[in-house]
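Structure ticket #2291
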Amino acid sequence: MNPFLDITLRSLAVYLFMILGLRIFGKNQLSQLNAGDIILLLLISNAVQNAMVGQDTSLQGGLVAALVLFLANFGLKKLMFKNPKIKELIEADPIILVNDGILNKNALNKSEITIDELEESVREHGVENISDVKLAILEVDGNISVISFDKNNQTNFTRHKKKKNIRRKL
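Resolution: structure written out below.
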């Protein structure tokens, strides 16, 4: 087999395996990597390198593998945009954590978010109490968006990157 075709097929197989692995084991958002997550990423990249390029340690082999990964990711994003069923398979839906000041404990448990973590995120949005939250949503990117009521019953929307390592089971 052509060595570049071999690298292409190996790289695609590793890419698909990683997508599946992230879907099964949950996904930490890149903005919230802790030391363990960074170590895991480094070890995974080292473990799959040979699976992608095999014995070819040339510059061309590495560039072909990288190009295939870029193209696969680009293609997957386009496919997800055009086909909602594929998007559902790969990405979770947003989860409502608080609605009109009422905490959704089932959603917190499903998302593996503690009440303390939610309260911290609400305070980061400038809201003192969960009862003052009109809507808090765990977005698909792992951030928590908060829409709150102010003293005049006006709605305020803020969105911040989460500070804690909030894991989402996808």
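Closing remark: Helices lie at 3-25, 35-53, 59-82, 84-90, 105-111, 115-124.
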